[in-house]
């Protein structure tokens, strides 16, 4: 799970152009509404990078604001997608 966490942090860092800042984020680090870099377009960028990095597809009905509440909620989402495979 630590490897997945590091990959998710790397995606956040890359998509938001944080220059390595995200690598120090903890599971309780708030994202949406706190990070000015994370606007609606950046959310799309993060999702696209997650899809590419982890080889899954995110349906429009699978996400809402709570998915991006904290690093931990995003990590739970990614781990759930990986557990279900590409079908769900």
User: What percentage of amino acids are in beta strands?
Assistant: under 5%
Tell me the CATH topology: Non-ribosomal Peptide Synthetase Peptidyl Carrier Protein, Chain A
Radius of gyration (Å): 12 Å
Report the mean per-residue pLDDT as an integer: 94
The total number of structural domains is: 1
Largest sheet, in brief, is: none
Distance between the termini: 20 Å
Q: CATH superfamily assignment?
A: ACP-like
Strand tally, please? Answer: 0
In CATH, the architecture is Orthogonal Bundle
* Unreliable sequence segments: none
Give the CA-based shape. globular
Give the helices and strands as they follow along the chain.
HHH
Oligomer: single chain
Pick out its properties:
mainly alpha; Non-ribosomal Peptide Synthetase Peptidyl Carrier Protein, Chain A
